[in-house]
Amino acid sequence: MARVASEVRRLRGKDHSALSAAKLADRTVDFGWGISRSVVADLETGRKKSLDISELLVLAAALGVSPAQLLFPDLPKGKVEALPGLPQESHDALRWFSGEAGLVRPSSEWTDEESDARLDMWVRDTFDPKNDRVGITREWLDALKAMRRARVQLRNGLSKRESAEHIESMQYLYEDARRRSEDLFRKMTELGMAVGDEVDG
């Protein structure tokens, strides 16, 4: 709450948008979930002790930033408590929140090879591949982007009568990306994800 309040106050300030609490409240109405001026004031002064997800999302939209920035404003290296008792650098917390990478946590599963003594190491968690819809979606979007980029390069190469080797390498890149996107599409379908009807969405 303190981080969100501080970032809302900073973003409203004269060095940024110079929004009054009343004007910010008016903007939240435009995003479908009105937050009163008094609630904004209570948030910024610390009297408001909790924040609904809908309030977080609407405040971020009204301020023109990502909701993650309100949660982890001290990017990239500022320390935050991502979970109770678990400090992270802000960029690591952001990567976890956005589904890019797991949290970094202490682990005592490592041992010194010579003395067999336990070592306290920090390791990155991995997401459960059976449940991680964000990671597979990101991979699929990357494969689609690579496929489209290779298709454009292939067309350009053909129109400019590039060498056979160049055309062949572009065809390989296109086919490889297409296969990856189709494989991921099938996996997402098996996971019951909303993928639409076509591989190339």
Care to describe what's here?
With 201 residues, the protein is mainly alpha-helical. The chain has eight helices and four strands; from the N terminus they run αααααββαββαα. The chain has helices at residues 2-12, 21-30, 37-45, 53-63, 67-71, 90-97, 133-159, 164-190; strands at 79-83, 86-89, 104-111, 118-124. The strands form two sheets. The chain has a two-stranded antiparallel sheet with strand order 1-2. Strand 3 and strand 4 (118-124) form a beta hairpin. Helix 2 packs across helix 3 (37-45) and helix 2 (21-30) packs across helix 4 (53-63). The model has no long low-confidence stretch (mean pLDDT 90).
Helicity level, as a percent range? 40-55%
Taking the alpha carbons of the first and last residues, their distance comes to 38 Å
Which residue ranges are poorly predicted, with pLDDT under 50 across at least 5 consecutive positions? Answer: none
H/E element sequence: HHHHHEEHEEHH
Largest sheet: 2 strands, antiparallel
The average pLDDT value, as a whole number, equals: 90
Strand order of the largest sheet: 1-2
- Quaternary state reads single chain
- DSSP helix count? 8
Rg result: 24 Å
What structural category characterises the helix and strand content? Answer: mainly alpha
Strand portion: 5-15%
Shape, please?
extended
- The number of strands is 4
